[in-house]
Design goal:
Structural class: alpha+beta
Number of domains: 3
Number of helices: 11
CATH architecture of the largest domain: Beta Barrel
Strand content: 25-35%
Order of helices and strands: EHEHEEHEHHEHHHHEEEEEEEEEEEHH
């Protein structure tokens, strides 16, 4: 018999991921309470409430927030961890179980506080591979453009209008990439990058668009003298500059650092989820571990212990950890095949 880990759990879902999650969670035994009229028109009939678990978009629409009774939330979270392995999980509030309160007496104020504390809250982030998996699930239910959930984060109405018919979906996806993203990318324009840590900290930096091709962006950056470049332990000096190379679908970006005369000071391969290109920024979720290369050919893997810690805490899934370490091995093999750093140019002209 097919496993139905959510059997009997009542779930209310809203937001841009509602169709895919409704299909997914209902197939796994969940009872969908109060589906939207659009979903009811597709044949998803409403179950009786009230709901045990509520799911809605998180701010920014790069994931969802799940809240409800701790045991039922735990079941939904564990199920999504298994079926959407390339996701990030952040515990916002653990919630109190009724068993913990049994036999105790409370004041009115304590009772009110406990009512607020009963609900468990978890945030789930959907990097590019998770969004693509949800695209495929949604496509089982209704016409879905490749990249649907990514584009919904940019211009939901444009996506909805193009999906009214199910023809030429790949061509429509290419059109959206051009209209919603690449037409905003012009050489010489500043573009921001969001470097998001697994637990949620966000570091922003910006660069000048130096090279643009569909699915590939190179940014050029300048640096103020003083201090050292992380991991390389090389001093920042006057006139230093660098590049960051992003490729759609790649699990790493290449950070190159140059002196004023163009000589290479070092290179860092930052392991992260595939970058997501937006009209005014690029976002990725850092997986901590990096491969560092010096001009003399030395190579090192750094910060793997931070990745392991995030995995131990349940923020990074085991599948995500394995994929990050696989990327490290691919890079090390590539570097070894070219005798360390010998394939890098000693000097690099600026674009």
């Amino acid at each position: 018999m097919e496993a139905r880990p959510l059997s009997g759990i009542k779930i209310r879902i809203r937001g841009i991921y509602a169709t895919a999650l409704t299909r997914l969670l209902q197939d796994l035994g969940g009872i969908i309470v109060d589906p939207s009229p659009a979903l009811q028109a597709l044949g998803f009939l409403p179950g009786e409430g009230p709901e045990d678990v509520t799911i809605h978009d998180r701010l920014g629409k790069d994931g969802i927030r799940i809240s409800g009774t701790p045991r039922e939330v735990d079941a939904v979270v564990n199920t999504l961890r298994a079926v959407l392995p390339y996701t990030l999980f952040r515990e916002l509030h653990p919630g109190l179980s009724l068993e913990e309160l049994r036999g105790k007496t409370f004041s009115l104020e304590e009772f009110r506080r406990i009512g607020r504390d009963l609900s468990r809250k978890v945030e789930i982030i959907f990097p590019a591979p998770a969004q693509e998996a949800l695209d495929r699930i949604r496509a089982e239910v209704r016409p879905t453009i490749p990249g649907h959930h990514h584009f919904k984060c940019i211009h939901a109405q444009e996506v909805d209008s193009l999906e009214t018919s199910g023809d030429a979906l790949s061509e429509k996806s290419s059109r959206l990439w051009e209209e919603l993203v690449y037409r905003h990318y012009e050489k010489g324009k500043f573009l921001f990058v969001e470097h998001v840590k697994p637990e949620g900290r966000v570091y922003k930096y910006r660069g000048t668009l130096a090279r643009i091709r569909p699915g590939e962006v190179v940014l050029e950056r300048t640096f103020q003298p003083g201090g050292h470049y992380d991991a390389l332990n090389v001093p920042k000096e006057a006139g230093d500059w660098g590049t960051v190379e992003f490729r759609q679908g790649s699990w790493h970006a290449t950070f190159s650092y140059y002196a004023a005369d163009g000589s290479l000071k070092g290179r860092i391969f930052n392991i992260h989820t595939p970058p997501q290109f937006f009209p005014d920024l690029i976002r990725y979720y850092d997986l901590e571990v990096d491969v560092v290369v010096w001009p003399d050919g030395r190579v090192a893997v750094v910060d793997q212990e931070q990745l392991e810690e995030h995995c131990r805490r349940g923020i990074v899934t085991e599948a995500m950890r394995e994929r990050a370490l696989e990327e490290v091995q691919v890079l090390l093999s590539r570097l070894s095949a070219t005798e360390g750093n010998a394939h890098f140019r000693e000097k690099s002209p600026r674009w």
